[in-house]
Amino acid sequence: MGKRRVVVLSGAGISAESGLKTFRDANGLWEGHKVEDVATPEAFARNPKLVLDFYNQRREQLQTVQPNASHRALVDLERDFDVQIITQNVDDLHERAGSTQVLHLHGELNKLRSSVHEHYVIDWTEPQTLAHCDPWGNPMRPFIVWFGENVPLIKDAIAWVKQADLVLIVGTSLQVYPAAGLLHEAPPHAKIVYVDPNAQAVLGNSVQTIAAPATIGVPQVVAQWLAEHDEV
Fold first, then answer.
1. Among 118, 124, 129, 162, which one is most buried in terms of CB atoms within 10 A?
2. Which residues are catalytic?
């Protein structure tokens, strides 16, 4: 018998506790910019330098923060469970903590892709300029799934959730589709736990809610699951 499978659905809240700002603040802006000015294909076509500068700043900020207790707890969980993380975050904090199976629904900040050949993707941690092109001379762009674009990895994410024994939702309100639909793919037997400071029974009575920040709630859940596994 193989390890029980845990699928984690993580969002901006887990990264916020490491010091990364969440996607939008209270006034609806993202780092002072309207989303449509920095996170759409049209924005990149209209003002590519603004878009590149924006993501260069995000990439630079990412290098100043570290994984937190919630990221590290998920790594501990791999001791006894098959842990698969589906994240809406574009940072690499899960990987830097040591998680081995991470699927980034919305792309990755430390990668670039060709603006024409979407499967040409390279690792990238430096500032990007307009001069950076793919081997065919096409401009490179951030490896980010922008608003209005398809989410290529959603089918892989659905396949993961369908096989879950335990589902842990953390740092996301699950209000943004298609990611919001993933919870409905969990099998009937799967135990579902939702960690959020404002957790209410908004996801249905079958979901256990823990009203706590990720850095408190996730280690709590992980410790419980590891203890239950040791007792079996």
1. 124
2. 106
